[in-house]
Amino acid sequence: MAQPTGKAAMPPPRSKKAPKTFSGDEDEITEFLDVYECCADDAQLPKTEWVKFMFLYIDRAQRLTFEALDGYATEDWDVFSEAIKEAFVGAFQTKKCTRATLDAFIQTASAKIITTDTELRVYHRHFQGIAVYLITDKQLSEKDAARYYWFGFHPSTQEQLERRLGIVKPDHPREDPFVIKDVYKAGCYIFNSNTFNRTPILSAASPVQSSSIKSQGASGESKVSKKTVQLPEEQPANIGDLLEKLPPFQAAKLY
What is the mean pLDDT of the segment spanning 87-113? Predict the structure, then answer.
């Protein structure tokens, strides 16, 4: 069964996979855009529909603000998203980070169980935004960053990741943290939203115990009944015993 795409594949507002409804808080706009763009990419939503569809996830009180931005009338996502960043410039400016910033982020992130590739990508982007700054500023080593990255996952998510990494990286030294790109790649494999078993087929119909067959003959319509015979658990010793256990039946004429 083919996976739905476009609007049909977008998560309903306020559902678990949907972006959190944006209510105007500047501190939430970066995550809101990250999650929305991930959802739109996953759903293969045409980019010409990104602008108008985003309004399903915006609080009604905020819609006039967004409708006044460049790119809204022309439905140009690139122009529209840049206008959003200008309107909420404080949220998109590079901010100074410290190890305490990373500690707080890891503590919050590790309390959440990741179940989708969208959630994984949002975590990855936010972590990288802090870690790259700290590495560039000589406050964090690559190895320490990898350790932080691992512990930013919930313990149950760590177990899933470790099982996958044990397969693809069986010789990884146990005393070293897994490399960030390897962990992310394993997560993308585990939480891939396009895996075949995320779209179950219809359950198989129960076996028919009895049915009727209609046949059209020269003299009209006849009805033939068919019954299913349940064999006993202990099989008879010979065919004669078996025939004695069959219920009587009467054949219908088909002509």
Answer: 86
Task: Give the pTM.
Answer: 0.55
The DSSP annotation for 190-240 comes to: HT-TT-GGGSPPPPPPPPPSEEEEEEEETTEEEEEEEE-----SSPPSSHH
Secondary structure (3-state) at 40:
helix
Count how many Cα atoms sit within 13 Å of the Cα of residue 98 in the half-sphere of its side chain. 1
Q: How confident is the model over 117-128, as pLDDT tens digits?
A: 888 988 998 899
State how far Cα 95 lies from the chain centre.
31
Do residues 27 and 91 lie in contact, with contact meaning Cβ atoms separated by under 8 Å?
yes
Encoding tokens for residue 198?
């995320």
Half-sphere exposure of 90 (CA within 13 A, CB side): 4
Residue 6's alpha-carbon distances to 18, 78, 82, in angstroms, are: 14, 19, 23
